[in-house]
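User: Please predict structures.

Assistant: First:
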Amino acid sequence: MRVLSIDPAIRNTGYAVIEGDHYSARALEYGTFSLKDSLPQSACLLEIHRHVLSLIDKWQPDELAIEGIIYVQSHRTAITMGSARAATIIAAASRGLPIMEYPPSCAKLAVAGRGSAQKEQVAFMVRALLKLDETPEPDAADALAIGFAHLSAADPLRAHLFAKRRYI
């Protein structure tokens, strides 16, 4: 299975393309798509949409995995994060991809063994599990963890760990 995974944000969207299964996964591409602070939010959403479409066209993933809504204290932050998610979801839906969302705790559980792992632990474990040459930036590491969680959830022996995942 090949999965495109996204950690959406309005300025720094993490992305990863992972192939394989829980036992033998490899990262084909990953990184952070960063946009300038001077760019209006509407232009950022368009760029996120375009970037996701370009990744889909380049890698032809079977499915898209995206980070679920997280609790934030600011309504404004929640709205901008939701907008970035929407740009990603619309891009994937327009290409007919099945879309699965995972709460951050599921991604952390998949790579670090506990849902409350710190960002540094997630990045370290993603590097080890996917045999990367370098520790990825935090947003890219989160996207890699989401992709790894998606591959893990496809394993019938581990699926029960991901009860909070859902198709959207």
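Second:
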Amino acid sequence: MDHGFPIAIVLLVMVAGFLILRLRSVLGKRTGFERPPLPDQPRVDMRGPMGPMIDGTAAPTRQPVGPPLPPPYSPTAQALGRISAMDRRFDPAKFIEQAETAFRQVVTAFAQGDLPTLHDLLTPTVFSTFEQAIATRNAAGEIHTTEIKAIVAATIDEAEILGDHAAIIVRFVSDQINLTRDKEGNVIAGTEAMTEMVDLWTFERNLKSADPVWRLAAARSG
């Protein structure tokens, strides 16, 4: 990354990169950022750089996937158990279902520029990044189309609690069609062919809050 390049622009490049598949008029050089720590808490080590971005990877072949929930007595399963102890409403199986729904809603809402939907599903930092990306796309007169053909798998990879805050990382494997057109209607990115995408999304929530929504706080390629 060049010296003096604003961090906000880099974050904008990151979120645009996944959903518009290297849209050349918006994207620059890929740069990774670590996920910000949970509010007022030490940083969570989630084994890899986590940034407030959506950053999917197109997989050339079908990737093997495991069961939706971690093995019993594994560190992740134990963390989920601690989350359940702090929030009796939490159920891992139901969480996975809700995460799949959120995945569809966020990806579709970004493509459509649906800010009200995104506002309810993203943390403030991530929402700000999405908002900037949509504004840039609209200013250029570009139209992005995303169609999720199928969510092949959604599995809980990791979970962690720090104080009253919890973070859960979900691995999504999905079949998508992503296409971007310029203001003249020319295809400038993407393809009409279906592509398998692998993403790791981090959902966070204050377990003491009356708000039951787990919001997207970060994402990276799988």
